[in-house]
């Protein structure tokens, strides 16, 4: 009788486990959590293995609403579930990524600036356990770039920030830096603002981490250039295998260039940001990453205003990150009036501004002289045409005179540069041609406007000055 009772109890337990627990991944997760307190007996009875297999099998057919339930599991059980899911071919990558992101957000307190992601049922871990958990999360990240819809750039930079806080191993930090670099073009300035926790540099943000991620991003382009030289010799299968590490597109490069310029403008007001770090990050981007240099010029302008005690050499190096040839007319106008810039930089801006104007006028003249003269039977039409041609000729003569006047001004600027480089040290009082431009020189060359911080954005080539140049005193 007792034997039949035991058989009846085992049968009921088996029926409940099979019909009510293992069919639902959420219930199986709760049962697996209970097994953590019954080890090793639950392992010997095979309940742990059955729960793990049930979760992995159901993960491909159910929605993501149960992913957060995995947060109640300890690290050991979570690793077993993830390994079982990865071993199945019918489990999609999005499901694996979803489980990973949900578990990381719920169990790592420092992953989010706000604590709204953390579940109340998630176990509270020590700093050592959190570091181990973080390194497991980093090791579980997919090798390929992915769609970015689950493992987003925001999540990756949050993991990088947490790795910085928890002092993760160099290998883990390098791995997350490389992973974040694959989605750098999708990041925002807020994502990449990583506070400095070292306490040594006393800077507000850790610029080094951002520079390392940027250099990993640029390294992919160098790899793409090397592979392009011999890609014709590889097979289609090898080419398909290399798509996960393909060279960044031109659009992605420009987006990263804008991100870097906006980031520099954000951190430029930090009084403890050294000129060397500012210039290294600004010069890290290749020339083709910036269509226009208005963004980096804006960052330079903010940096010079926040660091008025720079030496002439430091000021010259900071100004040197801007390519005056790639400034729009609005930015050139602001730079020509900017008292914070070096005299040499102002002269360069004026010179290239004059070149742009000359080219525009020359193009207009060529287009006007190349227009065909149509003849018609009407004498009145001929008279009108002749009058319009005479008016156009007068206008062209006036434009030619203006160009000649600008050329004379340019020659005068060159002579001024030679005088300053040669013997102008005594009049400047600093012993260097790189001193800031005096107000008297500006009035001589008709620069009569007060200087304001440039707020130009390099989004479009032709935008109204009001929307392009937001200036503050």
TrEMBL record:
One annotated GO biological process: protein ubiquitination
Domain of life assignment: Eukaryota
UniProt keyword Secreted, yes or no: no
Keyword Hydrolase included in the entry's annotation: no
Every NPH3 domain range: 64-356
Listed InterPro entries: NPH3/RPT2-like (IPR043454), NPH3_dom (IPR027356)
Annotated keywords: Ubl conjugation pathway
One Pfam family this sequence matches: NPH3
PANTHER family in alphabetical order: OS12G0117600 PROTEIN (PTHR32370)
Family (UniProt): Belongs to the NPH3 family.
Name assigned to this protein: NPH3 domain-containing protein
Organism: Aegilops tauschii subsp. strangulata (Goatgrass)
Source taxonomy: Eukaryota, Viridiplantae, Streptophyta, Embryophyta, Tracheophyta
